[in-house]
Amino acid sequence: MFGFFKSKSKSGSKKEITFNYESIAVDMHSHILPGIDDGAQTVEESVALVKKMMALGIRKIIATPHIMVDFYRNNAQTIGDALAILKAELKNQQIDIEVEAAAEHFFDETFEPRIDKKELMIIGDNYVLFEFSFINLPPNYIPVVQKLITLGYKPILAHPERYPYMTMDQYKMLHSWGCDFQLNTISLTGYYGKEVKATAESLIDNHLIDYIASDMHHLRHAAALNDALRTTYIEKLLFDYPLKNIMLLGVESKLRDQELKLNSVKNGL
Question: What is the pTM of this model?
Fold first, then answer.
């Protein structure tokens, strides 16, 4: 059970990795669907990323392609078609993993109208993953987030550590309203720079992180996801922190787990 042992370091060498992400089970932010945003461009690339994630203990993947008016004008049709292509190839290669699709909604001028028209691509039980601009905070973010909550949605802000203009007081206020935060695991490696790493650690120290995810786009992210397992803060998140990822494990995955347990019992008799 390699998911439950902490890592040890050897003098003069990289920290040995002796656990993975199986305790969270679900990666709920990734760009693995082929050819519809800045993530995987072909189904072959998609499958390669899925294999990497599975090797690190992930049992369910929720693909969240961008919906962004200026660049990626995805909708239920384009996302559904890309998901079907990936699932068909996984079945063809006999790769057994549950894959679903939602979206990462960019907080642009189309975001609130999508809410009003009920055109959001949601995760599970009304969870809405969204992101801010990396340049400035949307002036209407307070009423829009409040609208999401009033309408029964459960907002999740993607990678809060990557917004350099936000203060810890703003994070705490937004979180206190009922907006969950999803950390990019690879931020803890310094992948996006020292400042992002420091903000990520501070958010964890302030108990503001609810989910972690890969935000997987390509194989460099897969390598960084593995490297993150050497960080002290990943140990804190995986062993001492009430992450919510497991709540997104679907019925299909739960039934598969039960079947595996039954088979293990039978084989042990």
Answer: 0.89
